[in-house]
């Protein structure tokens, strides 16, 4: 592990105070980072003092209409010559100093492992329900997923999150990397290809970041619409591997958990949010049947549709 070069890649837009905290924590990791490559959208919003404070930063600016979930990360990957590329989002904070070390360890334990993603812990202001959702999606036990796990995990076999995930650069290049046009879900599309090609995806429960959102019902709708679009546009990955079963399982487990904790007044909100998620997802899966005005209302990424 000592000879492995690691770059961290972070797309950024209008970064605030928390971004400085993120960079600060990355510079104090037990595993040394070679470079932190920032793909910043709109130079106007960039604080140049960050480059003066952190010499490890390499910043590249692009315009908002140029940003794409897949293409921007693919461009950043081309700028890296590291053995391991760790992709993060600007709102994810390392929970401790061992994040990079534990990601690299999970990634390099087996030569067939092409990606490893971190555990996401809730923020202090995270809602009671979302704290449980986090524990469902990011349990405290690590796992390695391969093609053999598809009958067991279904769509979750392909799960990987660029909120914080590490990739072996040689395998990434061999498979062509992230799709160059992606409304969302570029991480799972790539992870799906990894699995299909006989590689493995590791979940590193000991690599931890603090990251959560308290989404409203409409935010869930828009987010899941884009998720549905991404799956509809990549049948080579998602056809025959339905997502609905995992969603239903999560709803049932959440309701049972709320009953056990005697917080039954939260159940209607769970049902409403779940309905918005499913409505968004179903609309996205069938976006080709919708008029353009409807699509632009449903999406959270309007620039994607400006073709």
From TrEMBL:
It comes from the Bacteria. One of its GO terms (biological process) is single-species biofilm formation. Keywords: Transferase. Gene3D superfamilies: Spore Coat Polysaccharide Biosynthesis Protein SpsA, Chain A. Pfam families: Glycos_transf_2. PANTHER family: GLYCOSYLTRANSFERASE, O ANTIGEN BIOSYNTHESIS RHAMNOSYLTRANSFERASE RFBN. This is Glycosyltransferase. The lineage of its organism: Bacteria, Bacillati, Bacillota, Clostridia, Lachnospirales.
């Amino acid at each position: 592990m000592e000879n492995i070069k690691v770059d961290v890649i972070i797309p950024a837009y209008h970064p605030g105070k928390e971004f400085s905290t993120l960079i600060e924590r990355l510079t104090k990791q037990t595993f040394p980072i070679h470079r932190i490559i920032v793909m910043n959208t709109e130079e106007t919003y960039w604080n140049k003092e960050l480059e003066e404070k952190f010499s490890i930063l390499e910043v590249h600016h692009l315009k908002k209409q140029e940003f794409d979930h897949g293409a921007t990360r693919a461009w950043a990957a081309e700028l890296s010559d590291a053995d391991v590329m760790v992709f993060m989002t600007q709102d994810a904070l390392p929970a401790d100093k061992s994040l990079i070390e534990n990601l690299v360890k999970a990634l390099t334990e087996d030569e067939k492992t092409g990606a490893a993603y971190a555990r996401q812990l809730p923020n202090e202001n995270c809602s009671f329900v979302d704290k449980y959702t986090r524990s469902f999606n990011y349990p405290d036990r690590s796992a390695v997923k391969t093609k053999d796990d598809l009958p067991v995990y279904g769509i979750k076999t392909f799960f990987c999150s660029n909120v914080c995930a590490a990739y072996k650069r040689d395998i990434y290049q061999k498979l062509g990397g992230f799709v160059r046009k992606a409304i969302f879900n570029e991480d799972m599309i790539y992870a799906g290809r990894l699995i299909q090609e006989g590689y493995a995806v590791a979940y590193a429960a000991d690599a931890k970041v603090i990251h959560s959102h308290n989404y409203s019902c409409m935010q869930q709708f828009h987010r899941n619409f884009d998720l549905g679009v991404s799956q509809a546009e990549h049948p080579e990955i998602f056809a025959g591997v339905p997502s609905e079963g995992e969603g239903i399982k999560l709803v049932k487990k959440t309701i049972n958990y709320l009953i056990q904790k005697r917080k039954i007044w939260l159940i209607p909100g769970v049902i409403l949010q779940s309905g918005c998620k499913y409505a968004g997802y179903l609309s996205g899966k069938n976006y080709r049947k919708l008029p353009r005005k409807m699509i632009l209302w449903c999406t959270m990424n309007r620039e994607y549709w400006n073709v």
